[in-house]
Design goal:
The complex is a heterodimer of chains A (414) and B (292). Helices cover 45% and strands 15% of the residues of chain A. Chain A is α/β, with parallel strands linked by helices and 414 residues long. Chain A has 2 domains: 30-138 and 296-340, Periplasmic binding protein-like II (D-Maltodextrin-Binding Protein, domain 2), CATH 3.40.190.10; 141-295 and 370-413, Periplasmic binding protein-like II (D-Maltodextrin-Binding Protein, domain 2, 3-Layer(aba) Sandwich), CATH 3.40.190. In chain A, strands 1, 2, 3, 4, 7 and 14 form a 6-stranded mixed beta sheet that branches. In chain A, strands 10-11-9-12 form a 4-stranded mixed beta sheet. A two-stranded antiparallel ribbon of chain A has the order 5-6. In chain A, a hairpin with a 2-residue loop joins strand 5 and strand 6 (130-131). In chain A, helix 8 (190-200) crosses helix 9. Chain B has a single domain (53-288), classed as MetI-like fold. In chain B, strands 1-2 form a two-stranded antiparallel ribbon. The mean pLDDT of chain B is 92. The chains are: A alpha/beta (414), B mainly alpha (292).
Chain lengths: 414, 292
């Protein structure tokens, strides 16, 4: 397997395509079967309930759910799309949407159906003036903290008014080298950690027109240094630690006071009875220039080659509608519904976590996730150079300037 | 003389294998070669760019880094081959009890899924909670972050690479050992040669055809290592710089960054390197391989 896999994957896609015929049933009988592809098994239960509700309202349409794990989802989708046999409706994220829209793989959706959804999420799915996906979930980064460590150190719990200085002061007090205990985890995470701090300091990741890198902005560099300085001051573990052990596991070990992590981890933490009672969540602290929370949402995109475009669009619209959003929230899984006022069921699933407060404080300061046409290409540059800065092998300012140079070259080619 | 009919039967019998080879190996190679001269779109479609991908690679620091890491890995794994000879020799001791048990134990890693191997070893190597550092702690040694540190990662991965291949190689060597006629040893004993002398003068020379085969296969496999790196090193780890292999770079370019043409060019360069190194090995074999 070792050496056959890559070669065969790359060039063998042509072979695969030949084998994947189109699977839509004819519409002659008035009945339509559409396929719906998602990647998260945790959302299978809620997706099945939503499908059942949709089929009840549209008895002529059958929706077939296909779950492909994340690791293979995009490769499989690309291969299928190249051969013209993409699923009728499928999960899309804002990192990939432009590529699929430009490639003519997905069809524009009805703008009016996105009414009432937060702009920070919806705008992530615009390309060339049109909307290419109807968002149905939102992921909010937040500040998780270990109440037990806070109590022991006599530090007040984080609130919605916390600033960077509060984080740093608390991190210092919570650190105890004799117990191998650290105040905070400083993992290199874009959406919830260093992108927000870059923006909170008054900088940016990508200019508003998507043509210029913001990494060389002194404010952006200040946002990056917020993290590396805590590693240098030894209130956060060194970079190698996060490479060796997953941060979510680290935080649950009870040796780390604070953790910038997704609000969606509520389901994971709640499932662990040893952790459930000792932790809680607060909104991201404010930066020196402003408040900013990067919101990412998943959307449903409709294939441009679907044999049942009307039914497919109707399904995507239904998933983003209020009744379906309520079903999603009530399922109490990882995914949080996007439409305002539908989240009650989700909060109730994790009663002791301050999720409502976090949601209410975060949404008004929502900022879209920075994307261009081929985001993955400059993110790769960003991750490699920042890894050196995080490991202390290169000054942050120097790495950030190098990222800007390389990123601008990539953006110029788009 | 063979009749037409016999030829037809012959072709018919090799057809399944030959067709499979053509469809799943030869055709992809041709396509990869073609792609390497293009800039290929994510959803099909391409533009011919001539040798631009190769000139880009020739000045790409990452490519040289990956080349260095891959060669270092190959050398380390090749250096582990003698271990397989030792294991095979031990398994070949006449009258050894529980032979099949040992054989199974040594062969177990070969039939274990690479995903399981990678996951298990990354737990063992874990800098904070790993068994290896825990044991080193008893000796008063503060073990490094084996997989997180660019100076150690490739060595840690090579250990796993050697561990996984010992069983396979040992079985080959064992077959080689058992193919050596007993009467050579009897003759040597009459002439007064000791055990060590017998091993050096009879066993090793007569084992050279097997050794040659094992070295060629091991080198080819080592140059294409991908799974262990992918499974054991986090994509954001600072150690990737010291453990990124050529096929890993190929994966990054082709499947993470969607630069299919450039990725194909990397695959072509790797193919060239493997061909060249294998050709060299075949040249050198005349100097040291003894066929009976």
């Amino acid at each position: 397997m070792r050496f056959r896999l890559p070669l065969a994957l790359l060039a063998g896609s042509a072979v695969l395509i030949a084998g994947c015929g189109s699977s839509g049933e004819t519409a002659a009988s008035g009945k339509a079967t559409i396929s719906y592809a998602i990647w998260d098994k945790n959302d299978q239960a809620s997706a099945e309930k939503i499908i059942a509700a949709f089929q009840q309202a549209n008895p002529n349409v059958t929706v077939k759910l296909e779950i492909t794990p994340w690791d293979q989802y995009w490769t499989k989708l690309q291969t299928a799309a190249s051969g013209g046999s993409a699923p009728d409706v499928f999960w899309m994220n804002s990192l990939n949407v432009r590529m699929y829209a430009k490639g003519g793989i997905i069809a524009p959706v009805d703008e009016s159906k996105a009414q009432g959804l937060p702009a920070a999420v919806v705008d992530g799915y615009r390309y060339d003036g049109k909307l290419y996906g109807l968002p149905h979930t939102v992921s909010i980064p937040a500040l998780w903290y270990d109440k037990k460590l806070f109590d022991a150190a006599g530090v007040a719990y984080p609130t919605a008014d916390w600033t960077w200085d509060d984080v740093k002061a608390a991190a210092k007090k919570l650190t105890d080298p004799s117990k191998e205990q650290f105040g905070i985890l400083a993992h290199m995470w874009d959406q919830g950690a260093f992108y927000p701090t870059m923006i909170q300091a008054g900088g940016n990741v990508l200019s508003a027109d998507g043509k210029k890198s913001g990494f060389d902005d002194p404010a952006s560099i200040q946002g990056l240094e917020f993290w590396t300085s805590m590693i240098e001051e030894k209130v956060a573990p060194i970079a190698e630690v996060y490479a060796d052990t997953d941060v979510i596991t680290l935080f649950q070990s009870g040796k780390y006071g604070m953790f910038y992590g997704g609000a969606w981890l509520a389901a994971t933490f709640w499932a662990n009875p040893e952790v459930r009672d000792r932790i809680d969540v607060a909104p991201l602290p404010k930066g020196p220039a402003k408040e900013a929370v990067i919101l990412l949402g998943l959307a449903n995109a409709v294939s441009a080659k679907s044999e049942h475009p009307k039914e497919s669009a109707a399904f995507a619209e239904f998933v983003a509608s209020e009744p379906a959003q309520k079903i999603l929230a009530d399922a109490g899984g990882g995914a949080l519904s996007l439409r305002d006022g539908t989240q009650e069921g989700w909060y109730k699933a994790f009663p002791s976590f301050h999720l409502k407060e976090t949601y209410d404080a975060s949404m008004p300061h929502g900022v879209p996730y920075p994307v261009s046409l081929n985001t993955a290409q400059w993110q790769d540059v960003q991750n490699k150079l920042l890894a050196e800065a995080w490991a202390g092998k290169r000054p942050v300012a120097e790495a950030a300037k190098e990222i800007a140079t390389q990123m601008n070259e990539i953006l110029a080619k788009e | 003389m063979h009749t037409r009919r016999e030829w037809a039967w012959g072709y018919l019998l090799i057809a399944p294998m030959a067709l499979g080879l053509a469809v799943f190996y030869l055709w992809p190679i041709v396509q990869t070669l073609f792609l390497s001269f293009t800039e290929s779109g994510v959803f099909g479609g391409y533009t011919w760019v001539g040798t631009a991908n190769f000139t880009d690679l020739s000045v790409d620091e990452e490519m040289y880094g990956a080349l260095g890491n891959t060669l270092l890995y190959a050398v380390l794994v090749l250096a582990g081959v003698p271990l397989s000879i030792v294991v095979a020799a031990l398994l070949n001791v006449p009258g050894l009890r529980g032979l099949s048990l040992y054989r199974t134990l040594y062969f177990l890693p070969v039939v274990t899924m690479p995903a399981a191997v990678g996951l298990t070893w990354s737990y063992l190597f874990n800098g904070d909670f790993g068994v290896i550092n825990h044991l080193l702690g008893y000796l008063g040694i503060d073990g490094p972050y084996w997989l997180g540190d660019p100076d150690f990662a490739i060595y840690a991965i090579a250990v796993v690479g050697i561990w996984s291949s010992i069983g396979y190689n040992a079985v080959l060597f064992l077959a080689g050992l058992q193919g050596i006629p007993r009467h050579y040893y009897e003759a040597a004993e009459i002439d007064g040669a000791g055990r060590l002398r017998q091993f050096l003068r009879i066993t090793l020379p007569l084992l050279t055809p097997t050794t040659f085969f094992v070295l060629v296969i091991t080198m080819i496999n080592a140059l294409q290592v991908f799974d262990l790196v992918y499974l054991m090193v986090d994509p954001k780890s600072p150690s990737l710089e010291g453990s990124r292999t050529i096929v890993y770079l190929f994966y990054e370019k082709g499947f993470v960054q969607n630069q299919r043409g450039l990725a194909a060019a990397i695959a072509v360069v790797l193919l060239g390197i493997i061909l060249a190194l294998t050709a060299i090995q075949f040249r050198l074999q005349k100097k040291w391989v003894h066929y009976e």
